[in-house]
Specification:
single chain, about 425 residues, mainly beta, Methylamine Dehydrogenase, Chain H, four-stranded antiparallel β-sheet, globular
Length: about 425
């Protein structure tokens, strides 16, 4: 049975990848911030020389992810003592422009650098520095259109301001605030930078907002360090619902499981993971706890939901859980506190040691269908996938791999990996 499922995945080997332009990754965690892509037709197993390395280059320090839109890549780094937004050619890695957004922030652990991933929309690039400066740049040349300070000097969280801006409905939504009294969520006009609304209160954390539609209502969901709660705001800043949690170390984003569920997780043993169902009745929302389980304690990279299952890192263990019940389907160690994205029925897994692993997205078991040592540095940044290429970032380097087949040939089935638990 398991073998048959894997071969079914491999049968899609020669399906054409979506054309360039349709396959973009314009913000943190992809088109809908879910860590998934609608592209398909990738190599279903990797042999010698696969996947093909397109290019690699030093990028400067930081943990910022890679966004891809309009035929260009965008990321952030520390270069010559300044935080910069970088624009690169996705085909060659050549730098097209860079714009400084402020001095580098000193970190107590010595690993400073931006943690925010730029968002691209309407010909603009929106990025947040580790020192809480939000900028809007012209995607064409990096010129500054507007900027805003999100918190008083020195008020950023311990490891720096980390939110990746959400661009939705002509506005840019971020978690901000430097104290318990200040507004905690801000929305700026995307074109002008004027403040549209503010909501809630409390200092910023390390998570980023997610836009979803539940019961016909557009809502912005945040997993907030302030109050250790999951909340949802309407596009005009109205509080729709809130739910307290026992989470202590909130870094990851909520995971949307359509049509009405949200999964949140943290790395601490007290909380673990929690699945919520959002119900609507007579114009009001109520929140139900579906299940809680300490088997998916995401630390700094968020899980993905694929066909009713959650795939993610429970600290140093990769797991698959049934999203309906929280039941463990399989576990696999050896990739550390890694990250992953999903597309075309496949998981692209990046270990924190820089190893890149391919596996089918199936609850039947973990099967390693390919592995390359992509990087040697600290690989804490989640991959990005666009136009048939996977873009990886470690602390100071970026590498691009072409995931598309280069010549006709038969796909080979992968064997169950040693060390996988049923």
């Amino acid at each position: 049975m398991r073998r048959a499922i894997l071969l079914g995945v491999a049968a899609a080997l020669w399906v054409t990848v979506e054309p360039a332009g349709a396959g973009e990754w314009p913000q943190y965690r992809g088109p809908e911030r879910r860590g998934t892509s609608g592209e398909s037709g990738f190599l279903a197993s990797w042999g010698e020389g696969q996947p093909a390395e397109a290019w690699r280059r030093p990028i400067g320090a930081g943990y910022s992810g890679v966004a891809m839109a309009g035929g260009r890549l965008f990321t952030m780094a520390v270069v010559d003592g300044e935080e910069v937004v970088l624009c690169l050619d996705p085909e060659t890695g050549e730098e097209l422009w860079r714009t400084a957004v402020g001095p580098a922030r000193e970190e107590e652990l010595g690993d400073g650098g931006p943690r925010s991933t730029p968002s691209v929309a309407g010909g603009m690039v929106y990025a947040a520095s580790a020192s809480a400066r939000l900028v809007a740049l012209a995607a064409a040349d990096g010129s500054l259109v507007w900027q805003r300070e999100l918190a008083p000097a020195g008020a950023a969280p311990r490891f720096g301001y980390s939110v990746s801006p959400l661009v939705d409905g002509g506005q840019v939504v971020v978690e901000a605030g430097g104290s318990a009294e200040e507004p905690g969520v801000l929305a700026f006009d995307a074109a002008t930078g004027e403040l549209r609304w503010s909501a809630l209160a409390g200092p910023a954390g390390y998570s980023s907002p997610l836009a979803v539609e539940i019961a016909g209502r557009r809502q912005y969901v945040l997993f907030r360090r302030a109050g250790a709660e999951v909340v949802a705001l309407s596009p005009d800043g109205e509080l729709l619902w809130r739910h307290p949690t026992a989470a202590l170390a909130i870094v990851t984003m909520p995971v949307f499981v359509p049509p009405d569920r949200l999964f949140v997780a943290s790395a601490d043993d007290v909380f673990g993971g929690l699945m919520l169902r959002i119900r609507e009745s007579e114009g009001a929302f109520r929140v139900e706890e579906v299940w809680s389980e300490r088997l998916m304690r995401n630390h700094f990279n968020t899980s993905v939901a694929v066909d009713g299952y959650l795939y993610g890192f429970d600290n140093g263990t990769l797991r698959c859980l049934d999203a309906a019940t929280g039941e463990r389907r399989w576990s696999r160690r050896g990739l550390g506190k890694g990250s992953l994205v999903a597309a075309g029925g496949l998981l692209f897994l990046l270990g924190d040691d820089g190893s890149l692993v391919l596996a089918p997205a199936t609850p039947e078991g973990f099967y390693e269908a390919g592995r390359v040592q992509a990087m040697s540095g600290r690989a804490w940044t989640s991959p990005s996938l666009a136009g048939g290429r996977l873009y990886l970032r470690d602390f100071d380097e970026i590498v691009a791999y072409d995931l598309r087949p280069r010549e006709a040939g038969a796909a080979t089935g992968a064997q169950p990996a040693a060390g996988a638990e049923p």
